[in-house]
Amino acid sequence: MVTKHGARDRSNPMTFEVERHVLRVAQWTTGNVAAEVVRALTSRPDIAVVGVYTRSPEKAGVGLGTLCGLGRELGIRATIDADALLESRPDCVVYTPLYFNLAEVQRILRAGVNVVTSAEFMTGVNLSSDDRAALNSAALAGGSSIFGSGMNPGFVQLAAAIASGVSTNVRRASVFESVDVSEFIGDANFARVGWGRRRDDPGHVEDVRAGTAVFAEAVDVLARMLRVELDEISCSVEFAHATQEAVADGVLIRDGHVGGIEVRWSGHQAGQEVVCVQQRWAATPLLEPAWHIEHGYLVDISGDPNVRMKIDLLPTDADLADWSPQRMRNIGLRITAAPLVNAIPAVCAAPPGIVTYAELPAIAALLVPESEAGHRRRTDEVIA
């Protein structure tokens, strides 16, 4: 087996331990999620940022700190030369384009570089069997691993599986994201679901299914963690309609047009729904039907006992001191980036191939005392 430069053979899945040395990490593409990834990477003393790849020639040679709006430089400039970046042999690439490029990811893995990604990939259940096999083959050839996450899909499925740990005879597990998305619907990943389309617009349900297909991967990974074999994964869609005209994140929603979308991805066994990942998104509060929005994530476990857990995400003092729509958006980007960064040590130590929360040890943040974090920030500024 080919192994990554400087790495031990990780072929035994029962004996790997999380890496403890400083890991060399590169960022792949420089969009909104990437900015929060880089902030998270530079906060960790166990990670060194060593490179950044961009697809945009106009960004080549620009400092990473400038591209990510850090207000300081890190001594790293973006490159459009993917080969040069991979030849520098980082331990891991954080891959955050909007869409998953199979050939590009195979190239990274085959070079012996691990991948953590937010680009609509967790288990590969949405890939064809040939494409999934090719991806796994590239990872095995390079002795590397690939892991996908984010908040949802991603971390919230892990939270649901952990919540089931205080119950027995579990019969069903569900995750319910219920949020106001009025500040986000102009984003490219949200545009595909068709905000503001007219009532009963032909093909809208199918477009929502296609635009949210990544949640099939969320269903699959939750089922894997609960060790249940699914016979089928299905999707249902419901709409709520604006009762008066509104503009949300630059998108016009006319009276009577779609201002709320509820999409339910379900995993079935023997004709019964056993796993559910449901999203209720509201772009305006004036809807028919009048949906209640929880502003968080609800986990429900049907078992002995039943378990219910709510995850609330709250702004920091720094957020509140400079509160704005952009600051609110940044929190959403932050919770997409953090699960990737926090998983890097475990992914670098994992056996080669596609790995998920079902195969990795429990993922948590690295606790860095404020005194140490402040010293690290000052040191980075001196180096830059």
**Structural class category:** alpha/beta
Q: Tell me the Rg in angstroms.
A: 21 Å
Secondary structure: number of strands? 15
Largest sheet: number of strands, sense, barrel closure: 7 strands, mixed
Q: What's the architecture of the largest domain in CATH terms?
A: 3-Layer(aba) Sandwich
What share of the residues does DSSP label as strand, in percent?
Answer: 25-35%
Give helix and strand order, one letter per element, not per position: EHEHHEHEHEHEHHHEEEEEEEEHHEH
Q: How many distinct folded domains? A: 2
CATH homologous superfamily placement of the largest domain: NAD(P)-binding Rossmann-like Domain
Structure description:
This protein is an alpha/beta fold and 384 residues long. It has 2 domains: 23-148 and 334-383, 3-Layer(aba) Sandwich (Rossmann fold); 154-312, no CATH class. The protein is built from 12 helices and 15 strands. The chain has helices at residues 32-42, 64-67, 82-87, 102-110, 129-142, 151-163, 188-191, 204-211, 214-225, 317-321, 325-349, 370-383, and strands spanning 23-28, 47-53, 92-95, 114-117, 145-148, 168-180, 232-242, 246-248, 251-253, 258-269, 272-282, 287-288, 296-304, 307-311, 353-354. The protein has a 7-stranded mixed β-sheet with strand order 12-7-10-11-6-13-14. Strands 2-1-3-4-5-15 form a 6-stranded parallel β-sheet, sandwiched between helices. It has a two-stranded antiparallel ribbon with strand order 8-9. α1 (32-42) crosses α11. 40% of the residues are buried. This is Dihydrodipicolinate reductase. It comes from Mycolicibacterium septicum DSM 44393. Residues 205-367 form the 2,4-diaminopentanoate dehydrogenase C-terminal domain.
